[in-house]
Amino acid sequence: MAETVTPSGTTSPGQLLASLDPLLREWLPRQRWFAGKGRPVTGFSLVSATELLPSDGRLGLHHLLVRAHQPPVLGAAVHPGDCYQLLIGVREALPPRLAPALIGHVAEGPLAGRTVYDALYDPRPAEVLLEALRTQARVGGLRFERDGRQEIRDGLVARMMTAEQSNSSVVYGDTFILKLLRRIVPGDNPDLEIPLVLARKGCARVPAPTAWLMADTGEPAQESYVLAVLQPFVRGATDGWELALRELAKGEDFTAEARALGRATAEVHTALAHALPTTTLGHVQLRRLVDGMVERLEAAVQAVPTLGPYEPGLRSAYEALAELAAEGRTWTAQRVHGDLHLGQCLRSPSGQWSLIDFEGEPARPLAERRMPQPTVRDIAGMLRSFDYAAHSATPPAPGWAAACRAAYCSGYAEVAGRDPRTDPVLLRAHETDKAVYEVVYEARHRPDWLPVPMSAVHRLALSDQL
After folding, report:
1. Is 54:113 a contact under the CB 8 Å cutoff?
2. Residue ranges making up the domain that contains 270
3. Cα atoms in the Cβ-side hemisphere of radius 13 Å centred on 200
4. Distance of CA 296 to the CA centre of its chain
5. Quick one: how far is CA 16 from the chain centroid?
6. Is residue 308 part of a domain?
7. H or E segment at 120?
8. pLDDT for 37-68, tens place per residue?
9. pLDDT digits (tens, 9 = 90+) for 213-223
10. 223/259 same-domain check
11. H or E element: which one contains 231?
């Protein structure tokens, strides 16, 4: 993408990045959504810079897309560096309420003597984004677009959501929620694509996008970047993870909610199958799918040696699936959620379940996230989530997880007409693939949680079926 700056910009994009470079090298790797944990940042290159509020005023605001360069992973191909979206606020000094947002104090360059910070923590810059979406503004290479059938009132007060996320979210007056994607890749991001498709199909299980932010590449034949999505905020809703932990702590039964979640998942899958193309997975396609699982397992064993003793048993889960395909079994693949778990589900005060966050696993390539998959991939993710919730209790409650897993599958069957447990080889392979992914994630980001997926690894490596 070519460098861009607003016509009224007073700061050279190159000079701006150079002045921020030493601060970003320290700040960026500490962020929850930074993907290159464990490797130093060696430098940055500018993808785009757009001035939204001039820096010579009391409050400046810069939108940046920067590529972070890091040493390559041993044995991996050279990588150009991940691209990140930053909203940089500029003030003389930060008030105490914005202390958690501090990036640092600029020593030299066009912002010398000023303080820079993550502007999403600040209501005023966040409200600038909403106003730009409301008015469908175009600023430099940024395009603020919206669904004209939905009203966006002005004057909505913004507040940053501080829960740990792989992206960042801002709530506007309990009316809208803006999800700002942090790790950016060009192309049709499913977090916008899928909800738009489902909205056209009238699927009430997924909030319809109200507005979205795009960035043009500035180069012919290059795809745009999806940067943010604004959706209705489900007022008073509780996410499934919080609700499950709350009910578990009280010793309450959760199977009715698990069954309702299964029905909601099946409704979304059914709508997606009607709205977007499906495909048949035969021997060749399944071999490719299994090879991908095996490759991820081998990479995981290298990253987390604790997995080594379990590798033969885990591999057997994948090979059992390949053997069925070699015998002539076929499966249907379609677009799915891609990273379904309790935290991606919202229960409204009326009891209605909604599915959110269709980005998929951000660590996987966008093309892979947009590929048709067996629906059991989502189901396996939810089954693993029940296991996570049960292991969060003191003491752990494996019986609670087993009951919820069974109820979820039964609810799914009520709508889909087929119970995922009737295809145990396919389900085991996908749950194994998910558990291996979790092991690597926890080892890198939350080592205290590593025993949870490792307990599943132990079970799956020794099991011929679920």
Report:
1. no
2. 238-462
3. 9
4. 19
5. 29
6. yes
7. none
8. 888 999 999 999 999 999 888 999 999 999 99
9. 999 866 555 67
10. no
11. strand 225-232
